[in-house]
Write a structure and sequence with these properties.
The protein is mainly beta. The chain is 13% helix and 45% strand. The chain is built from 3 helices and 18 strands. The strands form 3 sheets. It has a 10-stranded antiparallel beta barrel with strand order 1-2-3-4-5-6-7-8-9-10. A 4-stranded antiparallel sheet has the order 12-11-18-17, with no helix packed on it. Strands 13-14-15-16 form a 4-stranded antiparallel sheet, with helices on one face. β15 and β16 form a beta hairpin. The longest helix has 16 residues. About 2% of the residues have low confidence.
Length: 292
């Protein structure tokens, strides 16, 4: 929550700074910036919690398009490091819309630059450190045109330890990409004949990640697991709190079979329904964090 407030404050301040030229830094300062950016940028990001929050706050028209981005460090070390950025058309299961290789370089002025690959017109995206976050403006010749593109032409980017925000002039609100963490999950379901079935070793990310599984009965049942870590919407304003929510649906129609919640710090979330029914649990699920 503190990080969100910090970024909002920077967003409000930056129009006053946009016309300010960057003072040169020493190579040592550039190396520090490169190290810190490399500690923040690589990872998996999704904006599904932002979309859920705006829907819950009765502002669905402000929701950015769904975006899922993966940033990978390929090779290199100071002063040059190569990154691969994969941008999906929607969630993590959708096709990759764009795959680009970028290079992080400490420039002659001591500032870190994100440079486009050789297949594109030469471009440089310089980064500035501002109050604990890194800020960059994407030149028109460097960016993409997709509504949910991370490096969209003319966009401004903010990078914190666990979020990437992207603002485009004229947009209702910034795109908020949250760093995702991988979880190991299982689902237990009671078949129609009363016998249990367990589905284990299911991998899911916590920023709106989904996974579809099927029972082994005939006809089979299609189940969908959803894991979301984000700020809970509160129209009254009294219940804004980060939560980890786990949902199990049965298709078609997304019939809710069960759900549970926990604090994100717990590292696990689960539920069980129908424990007191004849024959035992109707359904249960649990997810446990496997990486940080």
């Amino acid at each position: 929550m503190h990080r969100i407030v910090q970024i909002i404050a920077i967003v409000a301040l930056l129009p006053c700074l946009s016309g300010t030229a960057m003072a040169a830094q020493t190579p040592a300062e550039g190396r520090l910036d490169l190290r810190d950016l490399l500690a923040r940028l690589p990872g998996r990001y999704d904006n599904e919690p932002q979309r859920f929050f705006l829907e819950g706050m009765k502002r669905p028209a402000e929701r950015p398009d769904r975006a899922h981005v993966v940033i990978r460090r390929l090779d290199g070390d100071w002063p040059v490091v190569r990154l691969e950025i994969l941008e999906h058309e929607g969630d993590e299961h959708s096709p990759v819309r764009e795959r680009r290789t970028w290079t992080l370089v400490v420039g002659e002025d001591g500032h870190v630059e994100l440079r486009g690959d050789e297949a594109r017109p030469p471009c440089r995206v310089p980064w500035q450190r501002r109050a604990g976050v890194f800020v960059a403006d994407v030149p028109a010749r460097c960016g993409s045109e997709g509504a949910a593109a991370l490096l969209r032409a003319g966009a401004r980017l903010w990078v914190s330890s666990d979020e990437i925000w992207r603002e485009v002039p004229g947009s209702a609100r910034p795109l908020q990409l949250l760093r995702a963490t991988e979880f190991d999950c299982f689902v237990a379901i009671r078949r129609r004949n009363g016998e249990p079935q367990a589905l284990t070793s299911l991998r899911l990310h916590d920023r709106g990640g989904t996974l579809t599984v099927r029972t082994d009965e005939q006809p089979e049942r299609e189940l969908r697991l959803l894991l979301r870590h984000g700020l809970w919407p509160s129209v009254s304003g009294n219940n804004f709190v980060p939560l980890m929510n786990l949902y199990l649906y049965e298709e078609p129609g997304q019939r809710l079979l069960g759900n549970g919640w926990a604090t994100p710090e717990s590292g696990r979330v689960g539920f069980a329904v129908g424990e007191e029914d004849a024959g035992g649990q109707a359904a249960s699920a649990r997810c446990t964090r496997i990486t940080r």
